[in-house]
Amino acid sequence: MGDSSTLVTTRRALHAVGELVLAGPQHAATGEISLRVVPGGFATTHSPDLRVSGTDVVGEAATVAINGHTPASLAEALGVTATGMADLYPDGSGFALDDHLEVDPDAAAEVASAFAAGDAALRALAPTETPILWPEHFDIGITVDEVNYGVSGGDSYVAVPYAYVGPWSPRPQDDYWNASFGRALPVSDIPDLLAFFEEGQARLAAD
To answer: What pLDDT, on a 0 to 100 scale, did the predictor assign at position 3?
Structure first.
């Protein structure tokens, strides 16, 4: 794991790009906000075709480095209009359209790796489900039998990428469930993400 402050700065910037530069224009065009994991980053699921690859955003006609831009100027360079979604949800990246974006290559790779591992584990856990990277909380997840499974890029609860199991109903009262919403551990502390999800699933089934 890299320097934590650099990781947080990068994760927050990537969250802003995902929300304001990818999901916002997509929602304006199609009404959809869902994103997806792709090699090296993440992408839109509908038009416009945009994807984050490392520290760049790749559009239909240009590839633009994130560093040195704001969400508004980055989107303009890609031929789209940065769009906030405060009317859809109250949280989000916390970035304004004119806030400066800064991403570190190693930290961006760490976030992308966590999302890729999460995507693969979630598909193995529930092959009929399609993992979605949500721009609100910047996490990739699925829901199976009223239990949320996913990987977050990090947030105010855990600053680094982490995996979680979150039952909709009140969680069992034991030390395994270490978060108010269920169980959460940094991805770097989990040797096998699929096993992590399966253990949570098994414990809930046995409860």
So the answer is: 60
Question: Domain total for the chain?
Answer: 2
Print the domain residue range for 172: 112-206
Residue 20: count of CB within 10 angstroms of its CB? 28
- CA Rg value for the chain: 17
Q: Are residues 101 and 10 in the same domain?
A: yes
Residues 6-11 have a mean pLDDT of 97
198 and 121, same structural domain? yes
pTM, full prediction? 0.95
Same domain, 127 and 146: yes
Question: 173 or 198: which carries more pLDDT confidence?
Answer: 198
In whole angstroms, what is the distance from residue 49 CA to residue 6 CA? 28
- Are residues 99 and 117 located together in one domain of the fold? no
